[in-house]
Amino acid sequence: MPDKMNDLTMTESLRRRTAELFHEHQQAIFRRTDRIFMYLLPLQWAAAVAIAVWISPLTWSGTTRHLHPHLLAALLLGGAVTTLPFALAFTRSGAAITRYSIAVGQMLMSALLIHLTGGRIETHFHVFGSLAFLAFYRDWKVFVPATVVVAADHLLRGLFWPESVFGTAVASPWRWLEHAGWVVFEDIFLLIACRQSIREMHDIAEQRAVLESTQRRIEAEVVARTADLREAQKQNLVIARRAGMADIATSVLHNVGNVLNSVTVSASVISDRVHKSGTAQLRKATELLEAHLENPGAFVTEDARGKHLPRFLVELGRKMTADESGILDEIATLSKSIGHITQIVSLQQSYAGVSGFVELVSLPELLDDAIRINEASVHRHEIDVAREFDELPAVALDKQKFLQIVVNLVSNAKYALIEKPESRRTITLRLTSATGRVRVEVADNGVGIPPENLTRIFSHGFTTRKDGHGFGLHSAANLAGEMGGTLTAYSAGPGMGATFTLDLPLNTTPPEKTSEKASFSGSSACSAR
How many domains does the structure of the chain reveal? Predict the structure, then answer.
């Protein structure tokens, strides 16, 4: 039932819009035709005056040309039949009364011209021409007053002044029917043409109404789909940032895992040295002394076991002292490893907070932090990291977003190097500035990027790695845009390495404090290559 109601509503709306468009088109035709007659009527009046001067004397008075009294009739009658239609066409263009007045005035002008030429048959064609011009209105109703005026004019003048209309002093009282019949004959064809034209106008209006309805529906669909795409983009950005957080967490876990290996080794060494430290022999010696506490001197000097006890204790002391030094060294190593783990976790926690806060930061320090986050994996794969940093002042930016981008680029470079085994693997970080901009380049001598992928590498979901998700570079490019910068890639081709360039505004002005809420964000995902 709701679908039927919607269909009925749409049909009714389409019908109303069709009627509106048809009416607008029809009114435009009415106004345009009114303007045509607004110029035509004065021209015909001037033509009537000219005929009264040059043709009427020859037609009504023989071969002598002189100032004929019909000139007054041309001036007065012509002005009378022209003034009202002209005024209505000028002031009420498009109105029905204007069309009917023009139709009557046009036929009366034909009657005047026929009279001025003495009823010449050639002048009667002005009637048919006038009907053709009236057909421009595409309104069959205008033919009714026009035809009535022609028929009445021929009837009355045929009875009382036939020379004025037929050019003879005596005419048949039924001759007017012949002329009226020819007018009706033309009217029939003009009516058919008008009806066909009106039908075409209605079809055009209906097609326009359908097109408008379709366009509105498409626009609404586009708006809805655009909203869906924006929502999906927001969700994908959240997913990408979460994936980036997972990548940073993975790097942190790699670093912590390597340090934990050292912790495990140190703990094993300490445990082994404690077990071999001589505490068991010391316990046995103390048990012997406890058994002879009443006379320890006699035990040490007379008993065979007691005689060896002092030397045993001296050697045991030396051994335990040496073991103590080794154990302290291992404990120092263990403490250092635990401190390294604490440092890694603290570094991650310092950047895993909220984003959106702009502050003055040291870019070299942030770049070093990005390297440290990937440090375990970089060392494991024997990758050298080169730093080429220009001296720069502190820059105002969102350090969490900046770190997220750089960590992603370093991770990309690492995977590009892993996929291309070489004797020397190098990641080069460059930091430069020029003309109010700061530029960070992350270059590698890895597998490179094919030319056809350079334009696609920042697209969402694009990746060439089997375990890649295609979020990383897309998210990094979006973050660069949010920071007012750009992220671009360059590669000479496969096997020629790649360089990713992050270009940002060089803003050294301390930001004002703000309470604006920032959105939680992690690092972007890793390589899309």
Answer: 3
